[in-house]
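Thread: Newbie trying to understand structure tokens

Hi all, I'm a second-year student working on a class project, and my supervisor (Dr. K.) asked me to get a predicted structure for one chain before our next meeting. I've only ever worked with sequences, so writing a 3D structure as a token string is new to me. If someone could post the tokens and maybe explain what I'm looking at, I'd be very grateful. Here's the chain:
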Amino acid sequence: MEILATGVQRDERPRLAAAFAGRHDVRSLETPLNADTLPLAAGYEAVCTSAEAVLDAPVLEGLVRGGTRFVTQRSTGFGNIDLDHAERLGLTVARVTGYSPYAVAEFAWTLATALNRRIVRAAGRTRDFDFRLDGLLGRDFRGRTAGVIGTGRIGTAFARIAQGFGMRLLGWDITPNAECAELGMEYVELDRLLREADLVSLHVPLMPSTHHLLGARRLAGMKDGAILVNTSRGALIDSAALDGALREGRLSGVGLDVYEEETGIFFPDRSLEVMTDETLARLMTYPNVLVTSHQAYFTEEAVDEIIATTVRNVDDYLAGRITECTLVPRSP
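---
Reply by user tm_fold:
Sure, no problem. This is what the structure looks like when written as tokens:
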């Protein structure tokens, strides 16, 4: 079978080809699948998409008209897919249920430490042979408080690193994690966590109940001088409210690997374009804000795990198997 893979990063392409070698032919494209690129999928029974794909009802209908019967997404998130419509159309849909939690947890700490020690500003200065320390004063993490919002696999990995720094641990989740409790984490109400934590890291999924989990009120309730890091989903934070909080000057730093309107913005080279998203443009003007383009997952180990799961998803589709990765099962 020939498979169309869309939204494939350059470093991902050879790994994807090697994983499918001798099994199926893969055509890899850097562009994500959406209404504009839909014609490229015509004739492919199986389409392998990335998280930035826009798989709404019209696109799904177009896929079916073109002969597509199976969509497998190389991500854990699937909010970009109209699953109800896919089921009505008889499309089989699968995803990746998980990958290296250390990739994301370590990257969250990369953002946190870079913000705390003003690394980006320092590197820019020394590149110009400016070796002053003015404005580069950081703080020890040891003895301070880390607030972990969401204590699943990634949140737990983040908490273990925090423990290594010698930090006090506060956690918030629907269900406490025994592994985190063994690390000494105290589970508290979200408002208290925000009030006491020197570092807050988000690791919850995006659902209706977590959309804008940190809005104006909760951002205003954060501890003065706190660092906020989001490597989970952009819409967990109200970006306009975050802009307002930054203007008040109470946050020491903000690290964003995700942004609530990132679809259609992140991944392509837009260096020669005007940034029309005014909120994102403003956020990136703050000297204490560090924005990266959804790269927390992007390690060799995590990408290989994602690809291996994708290969299994194709095999399961062909065999008619339903697994934990199946979002919409194959029609009888």
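A couple of things are worth pointing out once you decode it. The mean pLDDT is 96. The chain has two domains: 2-99+299-328, 101-291. Feel free to ask follow-ups in this thread.
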